[in-house]
Fold each of these.
Amino acid sequence: MSQKMLINARLPEELRIAVVENDALEELYVERTANDNYVGNIYKGVVVNIEQGLQAVFVDFGVGQNGFLHISDVEPHYFKQAPNFKPQEEERRPGWRRRHDDDDLLNSGRPRHKPPIQDIFQRGDEVLVQVIKEGIGSKGPTLSTYVSIPGRYLVLMPSLGRVGVSRKITDESVRRKLRSLMDELDPPKGLGFIVRTAGSDRTKKDLAFDLAYLMRLWRSIVRRVKNLPGPVGIYEESDVVIRTIRDVFTSEIDEIIVDEKGAYDRAREFMEGVMPRYKDRISYYSGVEPLFTKYGMDSEIAKINCRTVPLRDGGSIVIDQAEALVAIDVNSGSFRMTESPEETAFQLNLRAAKEIARQIRLRDLGGVIVNDFIDMASEQHRRAVERTLRDAMKRDRSKTRILRTSPFGLIEMTRQRVRPGVRRSGYRECPCCRGGGAIKTLESMTLEIMRVLALAVQEKRAALITVSVAEEVASYVNNKKRQQLAKFEDECSASIVVRPAANVWPESLEVEIFDENNKRIPFTRGGENAGNGR
């Protein structure tokens, strides 16, 4: 299996990183300089507002937009500030035991019983927070006091207080070996560390190097927290090139190709310092043809924004994004495997499950996702499709949860949303359809014009009524409704002119009324000034 990482940094406004597997785009990371990215950064913030109903506080962390901190993201040591709060012992069911190898960064060490947030914080309190999710729309960034700082092989989690191993490392002998190595390194008491998947085959020396790097970084953070008043930035994540190589690169990637000298130098320096054995896998591309075009990635990226995605051998998936969820529908189209409808549906669903996982990853879809597969009668087939989808989602770095097939043949899942998806980042709402994906037909626009004219002809002073609409609408009205327009003219003894307007969207409608002295008469319809258009 051939894998490459392509880094396109020639345009200063945008940086794109693609992971290509057997010439197919499998992962895509895009960052634009015009969009501030705060995820992973650590700040010393100041509480500016407390929302008891939400059990959350809003924190000014110095970027011009307040962040949202929920009680579930507040570290237990802050609970000491709450008067009369006594930690309760966790309820232990039969067979309960504490896990010491848990790498769940969102839930590790989080108590079930918490005091009210208004007892923990007051306005003006300083709090150390990390941005865990970008703001989307009018919502500000989501914050957490559970700070985590990733290295190449380890993650430093001060609040964890113990050593853990990534759940993605499933070999128990490897897990025991890694825990033993960490015990030998004797990390500082009171701090927590997680061994990342990338550290599964590392030596004690590699882990020690990463541990020393994280400890230097943590001491620097502690000094800044003590000496600087909030709101202020404490720690800033690496740029997207270093961050992606650090988090995504594995020994299976044969080559890293960079097309911009500055980005290449930074990446090369990082590889030499952190992964010297792989430094020869990075190369500089100086060709005239754009890097992504040379490897066919531009056409692959263009497909990401299509609603319909064709499948190999026929069939397709259709992806629709709503405000609260994503709906993905599997269509059979011309796909036929055998004479058996059940086997045909099963084989198509298997292909669709793999492509759904890939599209979710590439489009960075998040929230609730509902997958409507083709109905299958066999319970064994339904379970196999579920397994295929779960296996395909394993390479996704975002947290996901997949449910079993519902009685309606749907597989529901959730995926952690950290950043706005590709569609939100690269597109704006259409002023014509307002994001609905549809505009009024010519007949609907004509009926609306007739209703507005029926109101306009009631103006007794009218000598001229003009209707300005899109060219296609004007042509339709003048050809199909000439008789009705003449009837309106007879009713009010005024001339009615329906004219095309240049550079307007299809639903634009502007009505003006003039008297015999060519003076404009104010006209409103439905409480809205018609002169403002639509």
Amino acid sequence: MFSARQFLSTHIVHGLHFHNLRGDFFGGLTAAIVALPLALAFGVSSGAGAIAGLYGAIVVGLLAALFGGTPSQISGPTGPMTVVIGTVFAAMSASNTENGMAIAFTVVMLGGLFQILFGILRLGKYITLMPYTVISGFMSGIGVIIILIELGPFLGHPNSAGVIDSLNNLPQYLLNANPSAVGLGALTLAIVFGMPRRLNRILPSPLVALVVGTLFSVLFLPEAAIPRIGDIPTGWPSLQWPVLPFGQIKTVLGYGLMLGVLGAIDSLLTSLVADNITQTQHDSDRELIGQGIGNLVSGLCGGLPGAGATMRTVINVKAGGRTPISGMVHALVLLFILFGAGRLTEPIPHAVLAGILIKVGIDIIDWSFMKRAHRVSLTAAGLMYGVLFLTVFVDLITAVAVGVFIANLLTVKKLTAHQIESIKTLSDDDDGRLLNAEERYLLRQSRGKVLLFHLSGPMSFGAAKAISQQLSMIGRYEVLILDLTNVPQLGVTTSLAIENMVKEAKNQQRTVFIVGAYGKVKDRLERLQLLEWLPTQWWVQTRLEALRQSLDIVASQHPIIREALKR
């Protein structure tokens, strides 16, 4: 019989136990302290307001911890998700002034529904199966987007609608920079970059920058000198009911899918980081369902979409958090702050939040790989920078789709070259690496009348062309041996190419032996009903047996070979 605790851990809350309460409490508390300034900054940056960032951090943080599959993970608004939802808010508000925000929150809900669907379909293990060059490119691109978008607030101007808008307005921003805002932004950057590591472990630098920058602005700067957060609502959120305009269904579903996929990638990559630190194993599909539930409810509550947050998760683990209790504590601390800290957040300058986010953007950029990409290969570097460019100037989904497509083409090309190298045609002798002494002897005795066609390794469609190119050779031999002994898997295209080769041999009245077809290979040939018209005796188990029978056939037709064998 399971105890109630075992039932909760197995069926409801993944990895739940109560043996680490002290560590989970301090881990969750520390993560909440780090999450507070980021949630406010992401909310302001998205265009939905600081309160939307807090709602998202609380709802996604709590529900992803309850229903997710990574016990130590802290979830909430992240840079990538904020970049996308910021674009959605701008696009929906421009196309529908009355219901733009409601439609945008509907996109958040749809993103959550897509994630739940991914989890139900058990797609978790496939979502992170993409080349590192693509991941590095789009993550670095997101970092660049955050930096460019925050240049306006850093210089004392309103948030930009997007990267292009920010770049177009940059000359004006620079010419009309607000000295007070620039000073506060520079002070913020100095704190987040220059704070000693030991002190940073006790007091997270973003929180210190937020407090110091705000106090400095309140004590030494006039209230109207710089843009501030201003009045934000506190208390329970009002529900945002889904709004799905008929004329924009395709656009809304596209944005929802984009959020769902990006959130899934972001969360599962963070789950891998958590696994490496804690030496545990997360449940990918369960994590997707938990993140989906969090985003679905966050959209209903008017909150930003969220995902697994790498920095907050690492901080949680280093502070002692190991179970979902730490994620729940993180969310509950933010909930407490929401009800009591509304008046404290009003004077926070936008320039301080911009400085914090610029540091986030810089940290997201994969500097380590960017420095070494050209040493790995120019192709890898080109792919990474191409994805980065598309991420910044087109959109994330296009960037990932194009990057994965090109990476897969390059991979197929390399695999095809390897498969072609593993295809060998032998008619007289061998270099000693493939045939043993007796097999080489039998092949030599056939006097060039037997063609041994050897395949090795998995044979995908890339190898089919190389097989088809051998058709013209068949007429010069009397016996064809197709050796599939070392082929663990046979693609459909390759199977059809083999069938064409056998048909060509039969049309020219040649004898064919199929060697070593068993397991998946034999099953594939049988399911496609290929070669079923071949005589049973032409299917043999070993290459040696095929060579012996081939020599007998050749000897029966050529007296010279027959006499040579008698000697």
Amino acid sequence: MSNRLKYEKSPYLLQHQDNPVNWYPWCDEAFKRACSEDKPIFLSIGYSTCHWCHVMAHESFEDEEVAELLNKNYICIKVDREERPDVDAVYMSVCQRLTGAGGWPLTIVMTPEQMPFFAGTYFPKRRRFGQEGLREILEKITELWEHHREKLTTAGEEIAAAVKRDAAGEESLNSIAGKREPDSDLLHEAFRQLRGQYDENFGGFGRPPKFPMPHQLLFLMRYAFSEAVPEAMRMAEETLEAMAKGGIYDHIGGGFSRYSTDERWLVPHFEKMLYDNALLILAYLNAFQATRKKEYADAAKNTADYILRELKDPQGGFYCGQDADSDGVEGKYYVFTPEEIKEVLGERDGTEYCALYGITQEGNFEGKSIPNRIGHTAVFGWSPEDERLKRLYRYRSERARLHKDTKILLSWNAWTIIALLWAGQLLEERKYLEAAVNAERFLRENMTDGKGRLYLRYCGGEAAHAGQLTDYAVYALALLELYRGTFKAEYLREAVIRAGQMLEYFEDRRSGGYYITASDAEVLLTRPKEVYDGAVPSGNSVAAAVLCKIAALTGEKKWQEAADRQLQFLAEKVRDYPAGHCFSLFTFAGVLYPHKELVCAVKDGIPRELAQYLKKTLVYGLNVLVKTEDNEEELAQCAPHTKEYPIPDSGAVYYLCKNGACAAPVTEFCELVNEM
């Protein structure tokens, strides 16, 4: 018998629609019923491709005994963290405060007034190896609720007050703190911290589990370029090569898994997420542009092809990701025995593949083998275009299937647009450029409401949930990148609109920074800000990048002042642990190191030499405007100073400014190259 989740669109919520638990989505009805029936709320937060979410669901939420306890004594709410990152952020902060850790599935018990008094992550059904069981927890809380209610309500009020104090105290400190400017010491300290955590044997940072963290690699490459520190580039390159050789990379179908459970990048947690792959494309392309090493271009290309092949919606958007499990078994889809390989490829080719990709009788994962290139000199064995690899891919696809989370999230799609745009330009592949343009069109046409505001997600023909800071910030960044790649003024105009909404609805003008949720959004326990970079760069760090780019392109005082406010806010926030804020530091580098603004006035079209230069050359800190007869009016609306640049009757005129000083205009692009 279905519960109320059957009316939802989220694949994660729909996975639970047939649970015997009487689940509600996050809604007023659930809280009203909790009040009327005088029951606590049992809140469970997870996501569709989360392995331990599946485990807890199978052990407990599909279990009749546990369901009976929950239905009798609790009002139960299921939340997809990817649909409601605001709810997740609030209660994850509760869990971290109470337990010192966090993760998913996130388990919260709270009063009908949303005052949390219990928090944890995964729990087995019954006590196991010293870990409390969910059944025992529920029974204990039920007894306390019935006989010692005041202990729970008091605890809930104290916890809620503490979380609110944390947020309020942080804002108070921000409001009275002196304005700190970004400085190069923050970048140097971040490099020292990353160097101290670096794994000299296998690349990456810290102990397992090891996450790709592409924004750290982007920072290291930027730092290496600007400070002439080869060691920073070495760390980034060794990490990129180790990941591409490891089992975290799919050597048959392309793309990267979520993280590695071991130090060698061999055994991944097999789920694949859109945002990881988009950001890794950017990291590999940055390395390719800096070194021209083909293996980096190949890794980016194979990952982009994976996204287009596996995650693309027919309408143009991109899905969230693919599950780690097949037929209830983690990693089953990806592992092989030598006999399987030889059956598909034949004895000779099968033996060669096993030698190249580490497929052995003893295996490297539960008796079977994850294909990998660890220990080999070259990153790749066979070409991705090799028909033998395509045969293995077809066999694997028919042997087992992966669940796909078909939600389309605006911010993740925006990162993908940026990645595909860069892939199209640097790899000179038109299909990636077209996919980026089509994805932006999809977002604009399907994820904007009647008032011009953004939605957070689209699924099953329905757009829902008010856009949050990362949606506005990353979408604006994607629009700016589309402008850089096409020089169509409509993208710049739209980026300015989205940045304006970001200022209007999300900025904290008193204490600095930007809230996760808009000023007119649902009121939760707290209104959090996120500055620390997690799996993706924080909304506040991306907001800084957007404001700096718009200020440079438009020359408008309003945007420069907004950029300065945000840079000062971040400079204060990142100083305790700069390495945890690498995307903010990447943006700091844009203002600390030499920066240039170039206006190209041309009758029509983009000069070929300029286009080729931007494709082939790694240039940091360069912002370019192209003014033509077709776009001059629209461009002037965004960047009024461009009115003063006359369009020549023929050829092009280039106006270059460096660090606030403008040079004389030139008509030959080659005269500028040494200056950029």
